[in-house]
Amino acid sequence: MIRLPEFRYYRPKTLKEAVKILNSEGEKAVIVAGGTDLFPNMKRRIQTPSVLVSLQQVKELHRKISYTKINGDQEKRLVIPSGLTLSEVCENRLIRENYPFISKTTSSIATPLIRSMGTIGGNLCLDTRCTYYNQSLEWRESVDFCMKAPEGKLDIPCRVAPGSPRCVAANSSDTAPLFCALEAEFHIVSQEGERTIKPAEFYREDGEFYLNKKAEEILSEITLPSSENLHAVYLKLRRRGSFDFPVLGAAAVLKMTGQKVKEAKIFLNAVSSAPIEVLESEKALIGTELEEEKILEAAESARQSAKPFDNTDFYPHWRKEMVGVLLKRALLELKSRKT
Ligand SMILES: Cc1cc2nc3c(=O)[nH]c(=O)nc-3n(C[C@H](O)[C@H](O)[C@H](O)COP(=O)(O)OP(=O)(O)OC[C@H]3O[C@@H](n4cnc5c(N)ncnc54)[C@H](O)[C@@H]3O)c2cc1C
Question: Is the CB of 37 within 6 Å of ligand 1?
Fold first, then answer.
């Protein structure tokens, strides 16, 4: 049995209390929600925080999924509190009826047991992954660690791309590319107040410092766009269909006017440290009726633009080929639903 390292543990009951603790403990404190990623990482000494601030009892983060009114009564938007488990999000009636693609995506994460513990907030803030990082302490010691090393180990090159000035660990959250493509809003709370950020700006192209967020900031809730005329899908590639992290994911969100694509958002994950937007594929689809040649054009643009690293399961050149295949499948699925 691998034991957890020692740490101090706080269990605040309100957001106000949580941000106060995080603010006073500073850099040494780490947020824990379900702990399904953080605790295994701590056991392997990948992360060794001396203070943990649990969000499990914070009541504001466990409210029901409900509509909020924006601009007076003009618009109604669905809000998901970040502390809800993946199972709660997946099984929620409002999500199932209006955003079935979110239910499907969350149900593809890990296993039922992990989904009943792991939260949507934890999934959106998930640490990046790499074959040189997600290993035991002994394994990592044997290769003298990597750039995303434990504290105090400096000037170690990236083992995957030795010339790279930054860590290339991959974004492996299944919900991140979908929420980017949906252009949802993330609400962030800290002692300094509240701010809102678009998911595409929340993620950084840096495997080590992968979020545009300070350590003491809490992702409190996610506001979804209106589901009207919205067609979305997320497909993931993984070795085992039963459960596995994505080695590639493709999210496509289309806003339609009649049969025509008015807006398109395409994001890939697991091929980079942040979900990557594929502008060329989006351009190929706008104004079309998802004719097959346009789908193939969009898929080929995505294939060309993707540059997966050799830092996860499967060969990178095969994953690159699969980018086109996966996006083509995703868009054909949308086309078949539309007609
Ligand atoms: C066997 C196994 C399989 C898995 N498969 C998948 C998979 O297929 N796809 C996938 O995406 N994930 C997978 N995971 C990873 C993980 O279980 C999920 O991503 C889960 O949703 C993480 O949520 P959590 O609440 O447990 O996060 P935690 O482990 O508690 O936290 C994860 C990170 O997010 C931060 N954090 C958590 N909540 C917040 C918040 N509200 N605000 C700010 N920061 C926060 C933490 O500080 C930590 O850095 C798997 C894990 C295991 C063990």
Answer: yes
